[in-house]
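As a representative case, we now present a protein record of this kind.
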Amino acid sequence: MFLFLPNIVFAGLYYEYGFLNGGDTLVTGNAPANIYPGEDAVKAGSGRKLAFGWHQLLGKRRTHFFSASLGLLEDNIDSTGGDASLETISIDALYGYRFNPHRVGFGLSFHQGPDFKQDIDSTTESRISFENTTGFLLQYSYEFTPAFHIGVRYIDMEYEANDLEIDASGAGLLMMLTSF
């Protein structure tokens, strides 16, 4: 079986960038009018995501895929009354079915040490370090070319710290670039 592996596996590196939204609001703030007018918020499981990973197409007709990535998820506010941010390292594993140009997959998302920091007027800093957590991941993407995909993702997850439990579930839009 392993002698024929090069004939049935097509693999390469990929880059992922996206925006996720959802989860419970940790803090809101009013941004300066010249940057982002209006109210902004830091939410659990939300923000910008940047990840790098390994992507494999499986089978003779490459109808299945597996991908794994390591990334950073960050949400922040630079407000008139102070700054706040939530950062976490994410490790995602996704398995799915590919029917050109569509891909549907499911998997797990592990968030290592989600860390919330709030700095009010540069004098008072508060911090919540959440426990490592794993959630369920569901994703759909459209393949514009073999190397360029745009997709939507849903993550079902909760963050916990001491007796505090908050919803970190959310959905988002992702762009993926592969090396093949």
User: Anything to note?
Assistant: Confidence is low (pLDDT under 50) at residues 1-5, 33-37. Helices lie at 5-8.
